Every structure is written in structure tokens, then in C-alpha cells.
Amino acid sequence: MIPDPIPAATLLLMRHAHAPGAPPEILMVERGAALAFLGGAMVFPGGRVDPGDHALVSADATDPADEAARIAAIRETIEEVGLPVGLSPHPGRDTVARLRATMVEGRSFAAGLRDESLHLDPGALTPFARWCPEHVPVRRFDARFYLAAVSRDASAPVIDGGETVRAEWLTAADALAQADRGAIRIIFPTRRTLERLAQYPDIATAMADAHAWPIRRIIPFRADRGGVPCICIPDDLGYPVTAEPVARAERG
Question: Which of 130, 162, 207, 218 lies in the 20 to 30 Å Cα band around 232?
């Protein structure tokens, strides 16, 4: 029996390239090899939506589940790589370090925000996609993906050393090339996401394209394409590649 999906959130954090005219870079993190879910894989920062995230949803939210997911993406990115997005006023490195320490000590994200007089700005995140694969060996997630930008001069990640053992800024094309030669491991939704991100020459184009497509749950399915069994996704959600042979697909 397919388990009920766990609500989750993922942040596609982007920064401008160092060289003028080069494509934007995306932050990717390597999960600890011993983790039960996607151990050793390169992914984007994120994690499950916690009750504390729901508790921080504003009373006038038009979509409480979406806002809770945005808050989870903000919190998880701070926890995993120490980069603040969607907080006002924008905190400095020392403030972020204290905020992370609060959560490591077992206190809530809400308590840390109060301590530092910070306010959430979920609108800083742009909805990009929603993935809900059914083929999972351990657990199934219903993950909302969001885009957000960070300035290059404040983009140095500080990994947590637990769930995240490495963090690296890569162009989408570079990440795909590394995966193709076996230098990193990526799963099916990550590959499809990178292929889509590789289309964008700059962050503004990425944001505009995110607004141009509907957000629906993507549940990959099996189908034959030219007589080849493939893992497929819908062809009306902005992805340039919508099928991959089952024999090649890394599904987690």
C-alpha cells in the first residue's frame, strides 16, 4: 500500500553568476551518507513541514498549507546551510548563528524569531513546482518547490554537518554534467528540476517562467515511449524533458 505523503518544502536558492552573462547558480547540498532517505544524494535545501511551521502561519493566509510550506523552506534552509531568506529585517551572520543555535538547543523557530526581533516574509519565495512521487523505498513526500534569490556577497553556506555534509553553488548545466559522469548522485525529480533551471539565462527569467506555469502535484508514472519503458511526468508544466528510460532513472 502506498503511504500517505508527508508535506515537505524545498528551496531552489539562486544567485547571480560571477561572470557577466553567465547563467545563475543554484545551491545544492549533499545529504549525509548514513541518512535513511536519500543518503549521499545531492539535493536542494529543504525538509518536512513541522507543526511549528503551521503555528507561524498568519491568520489571514489565503492558503495556510502553502504558507506553512514556505515557512518550512525558510527554516530548513537556515538549519542546513545558514542562509536567511524570507526574514525581515535581513539578519546578519551573527544573528543567523544565534537563530540556528536556538533550534539546535531544541527551542522553536518561533522562539528564535522573537529573540532576534525578526519577522517572516513568505512572499519572498516564488512557487515553482510540487513533486509527490509514489515509488519510494522509505517514505513518501509531497514537496512544494520554491524559488528565491540571494545576493552573491551574502551567499556563503555554513553546513550543519549532520543532515548536510556539503554545500556547493553550481549552474544547473554543471550539476547535470557532474551527475552524468558519476561525480554526484541525483534522483529523478532533481534531474528534471535541473533540466528546467538550465533553460534560464538569469534569475528574472526563472522567476517569470515560474509564474507562467500552473502548480500541480507531479506524480511520475510509467509509460512506453517509442517502445521503451519510461518514467514520465506531464508535458504541460514547463519541463523540457518529460520521460526517462526506467533503466536509467534514479528514483530515490
Answer: 207
